[in-house]
Structure prediction request, 102 residues.
Amino acid sequence: MSQDEGTAYICRKNFQVIIVQAVCDHTMKFTHCYTGEVGSVHDAKVLRNSELWSYMTTGAEEKFPNNMHLLGDKAYPLSQTLLIPYKTYGQLNSQQRNLIIN
Prediction:
């Protein structure tokens, strides 16, 4: 690997990374894994590059019945099938802050 290729693996925390995206079910068993993206790739782009994105965005009504959702990192985009934490930019109301703390 050349020096230039190696820099692609440097993440925002300044060390080399190969990204792994994983999904587990309510029993903590892995149901999906995606790996191989270099550390410089943003988490949201990793999601969009994975098979999970097309799974989530096509036929979601049948795949996620009864108001079921995936829980994701705050770097992911909020969607009908993916819930993410509040992005705290200091503008949360008291009810939203209470949900984060509790």
